[in-house]
Amino acid sequence: MKVIGLISGTSTDGIDVALVDISGKGLDSQIKLLAFETYAYPEDLRRRLMEVGAGNSHVSEVCHLNFYLGELFGRAAFQVAKKAGVSVAEVELIGSHGQTIMHRPQPVHERGVKIRSTLQIAEPSVIAERTGITTVADFRPRDIAAGGEGAPLTPYLHYILFHDQSKSRLVVNIGGISNMTYLRAGKGTKDLLAFDTGPGNMLIDGMVQMWSRGKQQMDKGGKLAALGKVHPKLFRDLMG
Ligand SMILES: Nc1ncnc2c1ncn2[C@@H]1O[C@H](COP(=O)(O)OP(=O)(O)O)[C@@H](O)[C@H]1O
Ligand SMILES: [Mg+2]
After folding, report:
1. Cα of 165 from ligand 1 centre, angstroms
2. pLDDT (tens digit, 9 = 90+) per residue, 73-87?
3. Do the Cβ atoms of 179 and 156 come closer than 8 Å?
4. What number does CATH give the domain 1-145?
5. Does domain 151-222 have CATH number 3.30.420.40?
6. CB 220 near ligand 1, within 6 Å
7. Closest C-alpha among 117, 116, 127 to residue 67
8. Backbone angles phi, psi at 230, to 5 degrees
9. What is the pLDDT of residues 167-182, one digit of tens each?
């Protein structure tokens, strides 16, 4: 079964698209990657999304960007299928995480009710309409509603891809915000340990953008960092 996955993470760098072939089901699924691409957001769009995340935009901008990103996500699905030489008609399903613009897993009290919330945009109806492919989305709200932290799928996927009978494994995913999954040797999904660890590349991106006055968006390959000297005391404190 051919499936396209679409996501843009907290660093709002662009749309990651994977075309995979899935066989088997549940924890015994076999996943074969047929094509992967990141389609970078234009710089002005990235800035607008950051303004939205910072709470500086009108709801009309959120409404507009929701549909605009839906178009871009749909286009990205076409492009990755083309790259893989697969016809869109062969793709049975699109899973779209969307673009998180707000994530508030800590409860806020509202007249005696604890409200935890999350909001992703990139309208799934637009993706479905443009591609003609059944599109599933809104994974994070479903997980928050069910009492989770709103990141339901990553540990599950890490388990399918990396669990082993004799080796324990630690998967670290450094994006804008970093998360990790600990897979104990020979154990099932109930023994998974998974959580966000805090900022990943987000702070580095921010510093590089300030330092370069907006000319560079990231420290590519860690080149700038490698020019510096280790501050032994700070290093010990951070590692301690
Ligand atoms: N070659 C690279 N060198 C350094 N940092 C990189 C490189 N490629 C991507 N990044 C950084 O990785 C982050 C994007 O990774 P990604 O997994 O897409 O995260 P997210 O899911 O938060 O968008 C950005 O912070 C970007 O600046
Ligand atoms: Mg990204």
Report:
1. 31
2. 999 999 999 999 999
3. no
4. 3.30.420.40
5. yes
6. yes
7. 127
8. -70, 135
9. 999 999 998 889 999 9
